[in-house]
């Protein structure tokens, strides 16, 4: 299970940037790293970030200017400012530019991670639970709020079939045909194992167990609404 939160780090100190990126990737965040505003803008042509980590002193456009520009363009973005300056007036300038959190350097990867997790909890609270889980057929993933699971091809075929079926239910033979298995007692028993594993994954997304319930001597039914992208 991985986090659906994407973090963009803009830091011109390569070694420090790589330390931060590796630490956050190990915590299963999606991370983009770059050294200047131009690279961030290029990334944003086709991508977006939930959290922006900005060094104040950057080559070219300053972190303060980037923060102000991105806050205006993307009001929902969360911004963490990093700087060696510790004066109150510098902090005020950072907050006025749109920063959510202002961290003076040197900052450890653990401290940065703690700040990010505080923002993550805020994002989850703001999102609430009204959205439905989403199935991405191309990427073979299901996303629910800020959590994501990867699916095997077998799991994808089963869950997609159940989503599209009338009443979200399929008989044993129909599920076996979807996954390319012969209809026999051995494969029927294997189907029980596949469904059990898939239910465990869906439970990890916060979907109540069983997301896929057994219809005795008939087949299985999906009990939750999942949207196909």
Assembly form of the protein: single chain
Strand order of the largest sheet: 1-9-8-7-13
| Helical fraction | 40-55%
The residue ranges in which pLDDT falls below 50 over 5 or more consecutive positions are none
Rg: 23 Å
CA distance, first residue to last residue? 19 Å
Please state roughly what percent of the residues sit in beta strands, choosing from under 5%, 5-15%, 15-25%, 25-35%, 35-45% or over 45%: 15-25%
Count every helix, treating DSSP H or I runs of 4 or more residues as helices.
Answer: 8
Structural class call reads alpha/beta
Annotate the secondary structure layout.
Blueprint: E1 2-3, E2 6-10, H1 14-26, E3 30-34, H2 37-43, E4 51-55, H3 63-73, E5 78-83, H4 88-96, E6 101-104, H5 109-127, E7 134-136, E8 141-144, E9 147-150, H6 153-164, E10 169-171, H7 172-178, H8 185-204, E11 212-215, E12 219-222, E13 227-228
Parallel strand pairs: 2-3, 2-4, 4-5, 5-6, 7-13
Antiparallel strand pairs: 1-9, 7-8, 8-9, 10-12, 11-12
Please give a structural write-up:
With about 230 residues, the chain is α/β, with parallel strands linked by helices. It folds into 2 domains: about 130 residues, Rossmann fold (3-Layer(aba) Sandwich), CATH 3.40.50; about 100 residues, Winged helix-like DNA-binding domain superfamily/Winged helix DNA-binding domain (Arc Repressor Mutant, subunit A, Orthogonal Bundle), CATH 1.10.10.10. The protein is built from 8 helices and 13 strands. It has a 5-stranded mixed β-sheet, with helices on one face. A 5-stranded parallel β-sheet has the order 3-2-4-5-6, sandwiched between helices. A hairpin with a 4-residue loop joins strand 7 and strand 8. Helix 1 crosses helix 5. The protein is elongated. The two termini are about 20 Å apart.
